[in-house]
Write a structure and sequence with these properties.
Distance between the termini of chain A: 27 Å
Number of strands of chain A: 5
Oligomer: homodimer
Structural class of chain A: mainly alpha
Chain lengths: 219, 219
DNA sequence: TAGACTCTTTAGGAGTCCTAAAGGAGTAAA
DNA sequence: TTTACTCCTTTAGGACTCCTAAAGAGTCTA
C-alpha cells in the first residue's frame, strides 16, 4: 500500500517483467541451440541489417562490450547463421549479415512470448497507449543520458508531428505515411525511422510531453 | 509507423528498459565485487529474509534453477555476506540469511539506478499511476500463467479493497493501514502483504479491472 | 610518413546458466 | 521396519556471458 514515492515501485514492476523476459529468453533460445545473446543478435540483424551491421553497432544495440559481441558473433558464424565480411568503405570494420538459414532463425526468434503478448493485449487500447507513452518517455530520458542505445522511436524521427490534431484518439501525425495516429500507435523501433536533427527532436519532444495538450482520457 | 497491434511495440519498449536494467546491474555490481545475480540475492534476502530463505525459494525468486542459485549462494558465503544453516523443521532444507556485512551490502545494492528513477519521476503522478496499474495487470497475468514468481502485490493481498470509494484519485482501500489510496500507490512487493485466498484474490481482481469503474482520468 | 586514432580480435578469469546425476533426509505404504 | 518413493541441495561438466587489458590492422592527419 501507501505513501512513499511511486518511482521505486514502478521500477520494481519493470524489473519483474524484465525477469520474465529474461527467463523466457533462456527457454526460447535453449530450444534451438542458441543463447539469448545469440538470438538477440539474430533479431537485430533481421530488423535492420540490410547491408550488414558492424560489430560495434551490434555491441551497442545489445549494450555489451565489443569483446562480448565478437565472441557471440563468432559462435553464430560457426553455426552458419551469420556471415562476416570486410567492409569496403573501411578496412578495419566488419560487415555482419544473416545467411539464408540465419534469416529463417531470426524470423522465428523474433516472435514474442505468447504469454507476455497475451498479458499486454488484455489491456484496453487506452491503457496500452498510456503504457506506450510512458515507456517512450522513460526510454527517451535514458537515451539522453546515454544509458541505452538510441532506438528508432517516433519521438526522434523527422517524420513525427506530435499533437497537431484536436482529436484525442489520434493527435499525432506521421509524415512518412501521411496519416494521423494516437499514443497506442507510437513506435519504439520503426523500420522507416529517419533521425531528426537535434533541434527538431528537442522541439518535437517539448510538444509531445506538453502538459496542457496531454490527452486526459480516450477510452 | 502505425496500424498494427500495439502489443509487440509495448513489449519492445519493456525489453529496451530491461536492457537498461541489465546493463546497469553489471556496472553497479561490478563496482563492489559482486555480480548482478549475487546482488539480487542480497536484495531478496534483505527484503523478506527475516527467518532465512531456503535455497529453492531464492532460486524461484530469481527465476533460475536451484543449481545456479546454489553456486551464487556459495560465492556469497565465501565472501561472508551470507550464512547457511540447516533448517530445523526440515533437515533437507537450508536456511540462508544475511550476515551483518551482508545486510549493509544489501541496503546499498537495493538503491535504484538514479537515472532510471529520475526518468520515472519525470512522469506526472497520473502517468505513474497508469503505468503502475498496467504493470500490475501484466504481472498478475504472467503469475497466473506461472511465468514469474508470485510477488507480494496489492491485488493478491487479503488487505486489498479495490474501488470502494468514488474518489477517483484514491478509490482503493488498504485494510492493513486502514487508509484509502490510488493507483499510484499500488505496491508490487509489499512487506506487509498477506496472501489472500484464491477466491478472495479472484474477486478483488474482478473489481480491480472492472471496466465501468476504471478511472478515466485524474491529472 | 609518423603518430594518433579506430575497429576488431584474442587472452584470461570469474560467473551464469543449463542438464544430469548423486547424496542425504523425510514420508508413506507393505 | 524396511523398501520405495519423493524432495532439497550439491556437484560435475560444458557452453556462454561478461568484463578488462592488450595486441594487430587499418585509417586519418599533421
Amino acid at each position: 500500500m501507501p505513501h512513499d514515492a511511486p518511482g521505486p515501485r514502478v521500477i520494481a514492476g519493470l524489473a519483474k517483467i524484465g525477469l520474465a523476459l529474461k527467463s523466457h529468453a533462456w527457454q526460447q533460445a535453449g530450444g534451438r541451440g542458441l543463447t539469448p545473446t545469440q538470438a538477440q543478435i539474430l533479431t537485430v540483424l533481421g530488423a535492420r541489417g540490410q547491408g550488414g551491421l558492424r560489430l560495434s553497432e551490434v555491441a551497442e544495440a545489445l549494450a555489451v562490450t565489443p569483446a562480448t559481441a565478437s565472441d557471440a558473433v563468432s559462435a553464430l558464424e560457426s553455426k552458419s547463421l551469420v556471415r562476416k565480411r570486410r567492409q569496403a568503405a573501411d578496412g578495419r570494420a566488419v560487415a555482419i549479415s544473416l545467411t539464408a538459414r540465419g534469416r529463417r532463425e531470426a524470423a522465428r526468434a523474433a516472435v514474442w512470448p505468447d504469454v507476455l503478448l497475451e498479458a499486454v493485449d488484455e489491456l484496453s487500447e487506452y491503457e496500452q497507449g498510456a503504457l506506450l507513452r510512458a515507456l517512450t518517455r522513460i526510454i527517451r530520458r535514458l537515451q539522453l543520458r546515454g544509458k541505452i542505445p538510441v532506438s528508432r522511436m517516433c519521438v526522434t524521427c523527422s517524420y513525427f508531428r506530435p499533437h497537431v490534431y484536436p482529436d484525442r484518439a489520434a493527435p499525432h501525425h506521421c509524415a512518412f505515411v501521411d496519416a494521423p495516429f494516437g499514443d497506442a500507435a507510437l513506435r519504439i523501433d520503426c523500420p522507416d525511422h529517419v533521425a531528426a536533427s537535434e533541434d527538431q527532436a528537442a522541439g518535437a519532444w517539448r510538444e509531445f510531453i506538453h502538459p496542457e495538450r496531454r490527452p486526459d482520457h480516450v477510452v
